[in-house]
Specification:
By secondary structure, the protein is mainly beta.
Length: about 475
């Protein structure tokens, strides 16, 4: 057990489908004087065809993922029963995916069907699902022999896995083999006292052309530090050891609550989330003070040689306010992640009662997530409190179930297990059970405990370039996959 995660002395570590695609174009006309559904230039008109789609055999709260493709490149995905109007004449293919509701898997009785649409007529097709089967997940080891691996990532379109070791090294797993030489070793710069260490890294969106990447670590004096490095021009498996410090956030006193995540958002800006500075109930009041960078989500522009403040960051209106601040009121956001839907998922470790996940559009700057006024939706130290202008979590759980510190992960967007796409995965330091939920239409649904105890102490999640999800334990990298 590594001391910085020891539940007895720290708390992270604070204590120590519904998928609706945009409707495609209507495709080509049916060969008459004008396009389907429009008046032709000759003065004649064409009555378009229609396709009625019926979905049966699913629970009422479950969305199907049915693709309709036809002439002229027509493509649309529908969730349940629907009528597609103004269709060009021709043959359409209706393809249905298997649907997961919790751990119940429903399979279509007919995976693919063809139907002909003619002008002025309505055709119909029924997609029927059979009885539910139990769906299970497991984890399999893809790398071992690592020392305290606590983060994993990869550049876009790169099959290698880059694994961050807390002591200050970044290792590469290539074709299932852990390379002996580190990609980067900054152990001489890194403090590992308490919860400190090299905590994450992020590849520049233009890494393929500029070779830049960024690391988040605690320096010898405990300061949270963001530095830029560059890959060697001679060897793509080795980085230049000389880096440039871009940002330091003093973190005096306590060695816990360092946050730890570094990630580029869909806007190309670099986000990071330092913890509140440690101690019980944020004694320095950092999380609500805009003069401090602790207890915040920060957003900076690193496209130049240093870093700049994005022009659309929330304005710094008070004396001493820091313009890097994107959001306030966080306690110890050990991990956050961006989803392809444009949302950010922030898993914030609680104090002594509740763990929480905040989900908001990534464009939502200026929010206050409540700490240290609120722990989840619970007022801190009082029966009631002023929650005006606070953004509550979309998901929380109490410590009554044995949890103590949430370890946030990712929304699965890989291809290996299509049934779990759109589900956010997380675990807890003290339970180590793989869990997930779906955030749909502003509401958390399908909250599932996968009854899958992960072997060893879990430190973090990671995602590769293909958006497959990994779990990092004491010395192994495990990949989430379908149980056979």
């Amino acid at each position: 057990m590594i001391s910085f995660l020891r539940p007895a002395s720290c708390r992270l570590l604070g204590m120590c489908l519904l998928f609706l695609a945009a409707c495609g174009g209507n495709g080509s006309g049916d060969g008459a004087s004008g396009a389907a559904g429009s008046s032709g230039s000759s003065g004649g008109s064409v009555t378009a065809g229609a396709l009625s789609l019926s979905v049966t055999g699913l629970p009422t709260d479950t969305a199907a993922n049915v693709s309709v493709a036809g002439p002229g490149g027509f493509s649309r995905v529908v969730s349940r029963s629907d009528t597609l109007a103004n269709l060009a004449t021709g043959t359409y293919t209706v393809t249905a995916d298997r649907v997961l509701n919790g751990t119940s898997l429903y399979s279509p009785t007919n995976l693919s069907q063809s139907v002909t649409v003619t002008a002025g007529a309505s055709s119909a097709v029924t997609v029927a699902y059979g009885p539910a089967e139990t769906f299970r997940l497991t984890v399999s080891a893809v790398a071992s022999g690592l020392t305290a691996p606590i983060y994993l990532t990869a550049p876009a379109n790169d099959p290698r896995l880059f694994v961050v070791e807390r002591a200050g090294r970044i290792r590469i797993v290539r074709d299932g083999t852990l390379l002996s030489a580190p990609y980067l070793d900054i152990s001489a710069l890194t403090s590992t006292d308490g919860e400190r260490g090299l905590l994450s890294m992020a590849f520049d969106p233009a890494y393929a052309s500029n070779g830049r990447f960024y690391v988040y670590y605690t320096a010898a004096d405990g300061a949270i530090t963001v530095s830029r490095f560059q890959v060697s021009s001679a060897n793509p498996d080795v980085a230049n050891p000389s880096g440039t410090v871009l940002l330091t956030v003093p973190h005096p006193g306590a060695s816990n609550h360092n946050g730890g995540q570094l990630a580029f958002g869909p806007d190309g800006m670099l986000y990071l989330a330092p913890g509140d500075g440690g101690g019980s109930n944020d004694p320095a009041g950092n999380a609500q003070s805009k003069a401090s960078l602790l207890g915040k989500m920060l957003r900076i522009d690193v496209r130049g040689n240093g870093y700049a403040i994005p022009s659309d960051n929330p304005p710094a209106t008070g004396a001493g306010d820091r313009p890097e601040i994107w959001a306030v009121g966080l306690r110890n956001p050990w991990r956050f992640s961006f989803d392809m839907t444009g949302q950010i998922y922030i898993a914030d470790v609680g104090e002594s009662a509740r763990e929480e996940v905040n989900v908001v559009p990534a464009t939502s700057g200026g929010l206050n997530y409540g700490w240290d006024r609120m722990e989840g939706t619970l007022c801190v130290g009082a029966a009631t409190c002023d929650i005006t202008a606070l953004t509550p979590p979309v998901f929380e759980y109490t410590h009554a179930s044995g949890g103590c510190a949430i370890l946030g992960g990712y929304v699965y967007r890989g291809a290996a297990v299509p049934e779990i796409r759109g589900r956010y995965f997380y675990t807890d330091l003290c339970t180590g059970r793989l869990q997930s939920f779906v955030f749909r239409d502003g509401v958390v649904t399908e909250s599932v405990d996968w009854s899958l105890p992960i072997p060893g102490t879990v430190y973090s999640f990671g995602a590769d370039a293909a958006q497959e999800i990994y779990v990092l334990t004491a010395g192994e990298v495990l990949r989430i996959q379908r149980a056979q």
